[in-house]
Amino acid sequence: MNSTDHAPETPTLKIKAFFESAPPLKDAAEIQTKLKEFVDRNSSSGNGKANRVVCVTSGGTTVPLEKRCVRYIDNFSSGHRGSASTEYFLKAGYSVIFLYRRGTCQPFCRSLPDDPLLECFTSTDDSSVQVDPSHAEMVKRAITENRSAVNGGFLLKLPFTTIFEYLQILRMIAVSLRSLGPSAMFYLAAAVSDFYVPWESMTMHKIQSASGPLDMRLAQVPKMLYVLRNEWAPVAFCISFKLETDTDILLGKADMALKKYKMHMVVANELQTRKEEVIVVTEQEKITVRRDTTQPGADVEDPLIKLVVDRHSAYIDA
Amino acid sequence: MNSTDHAPETPTLKIKAFFESAPPLKDAAEIQTKLKEFVDRNSSSGNGKANRVVCVTSGGTTVPLEKRCVRYIDNFSSGHRGSASTEYFLKAGYSVIFLYRRGTCQPFCRSLPDDPLLECFTSTDDSSVQVDPSHAEMVKRAITENRSAVNGGFLLKLPFTTIFEYLQILRMIAVSLRSLGPSAMFYLAAAVSDFYVPWESMTMHKIQSASGPLDMRLAQVPKMLYVLRNEWAPVAFCISFKLETDTDILLGKADMALKKYKMHMVVANELQTRKEEVIVVTEQEKITVRRDTTQPGADVEDPLIKLVVDRHSAYIDA
């Protein structure tokens, strides 16, 4: 597998080339319809102002290594950050487009076991199904709050698997949210692949393992943050995430992302401590946000979303 | 990343080197206890003969690319084959050790939507949780049959994620099942990685994406089938799977696996048609097994497991 040797130079051209080589999105028309309905419904509230809408991305994207895909490179991400943040955004009165990796953590379901159906329910003799008393509250909350957000039109869930699907849907969302101006926000918590095999240079069939080691050359995914900020959604409030395992380089990289991609905020987090604290980097300051350890079960996303909402308000008023 | 340059020569030495370099299994003691209980319970039935026990492996293994894992290579596998086969083995009176990839399809849950909790349930005003009538039968069946198999001691579920976990647990199972002699079976439907990054040559931190394309060299995973058949479980009945996307090479590769690893059966399947038909390759014959298309919802695993059980009986009696 070879990367394209003569890659185009600017981010815009690179992303154009990426999209042209990507396999077409299967359910594009259906996604478009859902997006239109959602944005229309949220375009004006009683006071004539646009509702605030945030697109939360969550979970990792995959990179297929074969066209008829058997193997792929994946990015570890449970979707915990994105699903928790979605709950706090809804609580703060935002409408949320939750762009999530299939199979990852869903809003309101974070405390449930891996397989809630088999682990939380029993069936009784009179052919009905019953929640185990120990899980009853959690299960009821998950079902009720999810239904209420989805049916009320405050939560639109759109799934992805590959990097190709993710970037194509994100572009559709960005274009749909333009009409909301600064009331729209992008909260990009997904773990997006940075290397991929360009579709046109990808092998059709399963890679054979008969003969010795496998050498792979992966191309860099074009820096989508730049194009999102400059072209797709130039007026929206944009927050990106930087995850590293090496604390020494984390803040430097977060700073670089802020400047290079003109993000309004970068949330820096370290793999081992990411559920305890994050550092919010803006042009003016670096703010450490910690979860309230005096409260059992308190999330770092609670103070984080309060801070984000606060800065978004200032941005809208400016 | 470099593969080990001077790899040991024989499969046994290769797998020994693989295990020595693998990160230790975290819950080894707990798995050992569960296995012991399960095998003891199934070691003799009323007639003094050992119960039949099959280890069904299901879903794909991952290969971490970093020690503090952010990225990994994954093998696409829904776990549908393994979970369906488990149901038919239980129906045929076998006890099943279901060695499955976390998050993949579970026995009795194949027909449920992706997220059964949020998609099949509603909550009512009197603070109870209710199944939607359209899903009631399926949900009840999933919960009842799973509970009955697990609580009855016929089904032991053990999860894995990485290739390191998978091979270590498989070895533990093989050693535990030795006492059952020919009554034990291995039905290896999992999609096992064939390339990996040896743990000792793996980078500690997240691979940086700053500078150009990424070159990777992956080493071959030692051929575990050979060691399973020859050392871990020399008397058990062994069935492996061969999945290809290219029909032209499929049967040749299945034949090779049969001879090279001395499998009793190899189930050959093609990615596009794998839910419709498979070809069972034995030393004597090639049998095409198709699902019964006159029955709505019939699975190819139904006739497949009947054939497997039949051949296993002949093997025990021989």
UniProtKB/TrEMBL annotation, chains A, B:
Q: Which domain of life is it from?
A: Eukaryota
A GO molecular-function descriptor: phosphopantothenate--cysteine ligase activity
Pathway where it operates: Cofactor biosynthesis; coenzyme A biosynthesis; CoA from (R)-pantothenate: step 2/5
Q: What protein family is recorded?
A: Belongs to the PPC synthetase family.
Query: Known PANTHER family for this protein?
Result: CORNICHON-RELATED
Q: Which InterPro entries match?
A: CoaB-like_sf (IPR035929), DNA/pantothenate-metab_flavo_C (IPR007085)
The UniProt keyword set, sorted, is: Coenzyme A biosynthesis
* GO cellular component assignments: cytoplasm; nucleus
* Name by which UniProt lists this protein: Cornichon
Query: Which stretches make up the DNA/pantothenate metabolism flavoprotein C-terminal domain?
Result: 172-289
Please name the taxonomic classification of the source: Eukaryota, Viridiplantae, Streptophyta, Embryophyta, Tracheophyta
Q: Quick one: a GO biological-process term for this protein?
A: coenzyme A biosynthetic process
